[in-house]
Amino acid sequence: MTNKFYNALFASGIAFILTCLMVGIKLDTEGTQLAIKGASAEQWTWIGLGIALVFLSQLFSDKIDAIFSKVPKPKLSNMLPKEQKMATLKPWLLALLIVGMLVWPFMVSRGSVDLATLALIYIMLGLGLNIVVGLAGLLDLGFVAFYAVGAYTYALLSQYFGMSFWACLPISAGLAALFGFILGFPVLRLRGDYLAIVTLGFGEIIRILLNNWTAVTGGPNGISGIDKPTLFGLEFSRRAKEEDTVLFHEFFGIDYSSSYKVIFLYLIAVILTIFVVYVINRLMRMPVGRAWEALREDEIACRSLGLNRTVIKLSAFTLGATTAGFAGAFFAARQGFISPESFIFIESAIILAIVVLGGMGSQVGVILAAIIMTILPELAREFSEYRMLLFGFLMVIMMRWRPQGLVPMKRPHLELNR
Amino acid sequence: MNKIAKKLMTLGTVAALAGAVSVANAETLKIGLAGPATGPVAQYGDMQKIGVMAAIDDINKAGGINGMQLEGVIYDDACDPKQAVAVANKIVNDGVQHVVGHLCSSSTEPAADIYDEEGVLMITAASTSPTITEKGFQLVFRTIGLDSLQGSLAADHILNSVKPQRVAVIHDKQQYGEGLATAVKTKLEGNNLNPVMFEGVTPGDKDFSALIAKLKKNNIDFVYYGGYHPELGLILRQSSEKGFKAQFMGPEGVVNSDLAKIAGKAVEGVLATAPKSFDQNAVNQARVEAIKAKGEDPTGPFVFTAYAAVEVMTNAMKATGKTDPFELADHIRATELDTAIGKVKYNKQGDLTESTFLVYKLHQDGSKTPAQ
Amino acid sequence: MSEFSLYLLQQLINGLTIGSTYALIAIGYTMVYGIIGMINFAHGEIYMIGSYVTFIVIAGLLGMGLVSLPIVLLIVLIVAVIVSSTYGWTVERVAYRPLRGSNRLIPLISAIGMSIFLQNYVGLSQGYRDAALPPQVVGGWTFGDPAVFEVTISYMQSIIWIATLLTMTALTLFISRSRMGRACRACSEDLGMTNLLGIDTNKIIALTFIVGAALAAVAGILLSLYYGVINPFVGFIAGLKAFTAAVLGGIGSIPGAMLGGLILGVTEAMTAAFFPAEYKDVVSFGLLVLILLFRPSGLLGKPEVEKV
């Protein structure tokens, strides 16, 4: 017990050092001179309470741990039905889910639909990065570069050549793939964290080039007035921009409602996401998908089995980039305006967090994590300026809570007991 | 005893209920405040918040608008264009019809699209990018001048009063800074004064010693800096350490007491184009004091533009007696309004028709005087 | 000397100054990586906290009327190192130690979360606004012909060099001579084996974080005095640069971090000297990619051995 007491004393001492200068004293200015002032009495009370809390929680850490260990950790895998039952249920569940996703937007508010669209963009990004990081085990910290390439491809083609969203979508994806291929070629012989920093560098280089190439990309001004997608040539705006464009609500003879546009964007995102999920799901079962995982698990064994690691890595990199290109083109369409500020490093970090939180390699996990990571900052709006503080804190907590990810990837496997 | 207690309790409940009803009767009008409350530019978002909240407090104290009390609702976009769209949709969703914001031009642009479509009146107090109003929105206004006006004034002053030999134009690679720098450069070139250097620096950077050595080597005697005060402050400070002496000039984004805090003595004599400083306006004295009393800083460049943005809305509401955004917009376009930044008049696009910029000389104590 | 060579010399001096501070921060990355193989993204934030402590203490002491610069700096050094090290230790204890043994990406994400948390924590407690401190150390030496080009070395620059040199020497001595240092080296060779040999590896890892944080605090003091402007986000940019420097020199290698920092600083200065300054970061990242292509483990890094 005395040991515990000293421990608790030590912890509260640490807490005191942490808070007394940074929270207890505030920088202030008097005229043009820097000065300090003490925090208010109320804040000192909070500091005191915090320190007391640390002291007590350390003193009784055994008991607290005991209480927490009684709270069962939710096991998502247990909630799912058994394997065989699953096989028969799965198509029905999927159908239900898809129908739900299609009907849902008509019942909720515009803000929620828009948020869901954003979540879908992150699902696509997460799935793309999941190929690179989760399946092939290549740490990529500059994923946002391909996202930017996709977005800028559509924005530029739309601005200079007036091309439609649907025509640009494959071009954006293709160009992002090309970038993935070109960037991937030289760097893939790097290992582990060296690859990470090089991809981070590429991400930054692309952003800075977009920012500096003012003549074409508009530099920091970005590109505005990007066309929204149309439904077979029908536009979703209140007023027609040009004489010959047909408006959706006029064509069908219904009243204009601003939510049509939002819902339409959402539906496009749903279709794109389903497409991406389907393709990647198939790829994972193909030899190339198996090869990715084999490479992640053991590169040397992989090579000794005659697999070409350059081809495998490049395919993962390129396919990941393609998905990001898709998401980018759609992002540009949703925003109607893009500038290099949307493609900063922290964006890459968030996408990576989605993949890791989801349980690397697991599609369901990534989808779930993408939804959480998009909704969380929005829910935290209630806490106004404490929003990002909470977001960072929860990122740490989630990693501690489920280090293996929300839904870790599982493969049926047999183990020989030695 | 028991009975009395019971009676008292009933009475109390009735009174409480009545109170609740009467509070609910006094309508509140929500004013959305969209800007960064978190993230690297939160300090500018703070200025906007200080201005808007001060305006709302003052108006509420004076009895509100048409019998309604105002309430400021903060929407944080972190200056992230993606979040700005989400915020705009949320504002539409929440039924808020009057928005002050956004702050960063890159957030204002995509958000303005949505507001105009959905019938929300938006007045930005900080976004200076010309492209925002170029699209001919009906409901989008600003209480801050365009870059082009300031740039040409600066160029005139350089050509007519300073008459330097070797000019460098530096900017911070952001919309505001580069826009201004380009405007200055174009006008100088049009008058046969070709800048020797035209370069960008990285915003948020701290080390400008390499740039300063380059300026020194090129024998620059005049530097125009397009951008905000932190970078110019560091450039001035490091210039004086490195013994580089030239005349510096900047836009209103550098006119801030922080500049003197960063650069100290080196600020003395720096030129800047700025609107008449609002926090020194006689009409704003009480407001400045009120803000100071709350422990906040009234000197930021966007404090009083944000204050004025609220005033533009509320003055129009008072005059028309309505809150409908379209009617307010018509009124704002048609009449001259009296605000914290002086009398404002709008053109068809929603830009200020005249913004009275002057050239000032800055001093090391944070004050400024009109330049000759 | 000709104008060109003087100009080159001036840019070299500028580059070395900024490079030595990169090196100080980079050491924190490299030590942690060398021992537990993780990228501590929150390290830049520790540097930022060191800067804030510097400002607070200086403002406080000046407010109390203490003006003797050496004494002020000494107090600042002590307080900043203590507070930053405490933060470094706590971050490790709270965000990384519970995750030891899981996939190496898990602590990385935890670190990114921690970094976001600390930025906003300081932002909320000290304000997001730039805080500025007037120059405390003014003046410098100049040489060269004023008519051609004058080279200046400010006193502050020389202080940065000397302080960096002293800190680096102390660290090298600590790592190579002391018992703790030897334990650190053992850990970086083989963590599991060191543990088996009866060394409390958790303690050594905590020590690594404390030493790294102390060096970041020194960098924080030097840079906040040199530039005089800080905000809660300075750590992020500096951290990214320092991380680049650490990888450039070969992550896990302490001399590598020093070399990497200096090379990065000089590259930046030279790029800004001869090309438009906005391409500074493009060139430094480009250089990094190039070096890694030819030396995939950085300049002084140990080539990774492929184990079966």
Short description:
The complex is a heterotrimer of chains A (418), B (372) and C (308). With 418 residues, chain A is mostly helical.
Number of strands of chain C: 4
Any idea of the CATH class of chain C? Answer: Mainly Alpha
Mean pLDDT of chain C: 88
Q: Please name the CATH architecture of chain C.
A: Orthogonal Bundle
Helix content of chain C: over 70%
CATH fold label of chain C: ABC transporter involved in vitamin B12 uptake, BtuC
Please tell me how large the radius of gyration of chain A is.
25 Å
Uncertain residue ranges of chain A: none
Distance between the termini of chain C: 58 Å
**Widest sheet, order of strands of chain C:** 1-4
Oligomer: heterotrimer
Give the domain tally of chain A: 2
Question: Could you characterize what this model shows?
Answer:
Chain A has 418 residues and is mainly alpha-helical. Chain A folds into two domains: 2-70, no CATH class; 93-230 and 268-401, ABC transporter involved in vitamin B12 uptake, BtuC, CATH 1.10.3470. Chain A contains 18 helices and six strands. The mean pLDDT of chain A is 84. Chain B has helices at residues 2-25, 42-61, 81-94, 105-118, 131-134, 147-162, 175-190, 209-217, 229-241, 257-263, 285-293, 303-320, 325-334; strands at residues 28-35, 69-76, 98-100, 121-124, 140-142, 167-171, 197-200, 222-226, 247-250, 271-275, 337-339, 342-344, 357-362, 368-370. Chain B has a seven-stranded mixed sheet with strand order 7-6-8-9-10-13-14. In chain B, strands 2-1-3-4-5 form a five-stranded parallel sheet, sandwiched between helices. Chain B has a two-stranded antiparallel ribbon with strand order 11-12. The termini of chain B are far apart. Chain C has a single domain (3-294), classed as ABC transporter involved in vitamin B12 uptake, BtuC. In chain C, the strands form two sheets. A two-stranded antiparallel sheet of chain C has the order 1-4. A two-stranded antiparallel sheet of chain C has the order 2-3. Chain C is globular, with a radius of gyration of 20 Å. The chains are: A mainly alpha (418), B alpha/beta (372), C mainly alpha (308). Chains in contact: A-B, A-C, B-C. Chains A and C meet through helix 1, strand 1, strand 2, helix 9 and helix 14 of A and helix 2, helix 3, helix 4, strand 1 and helix 9 of C. Chain C: It is a multi-pass membrane protein.
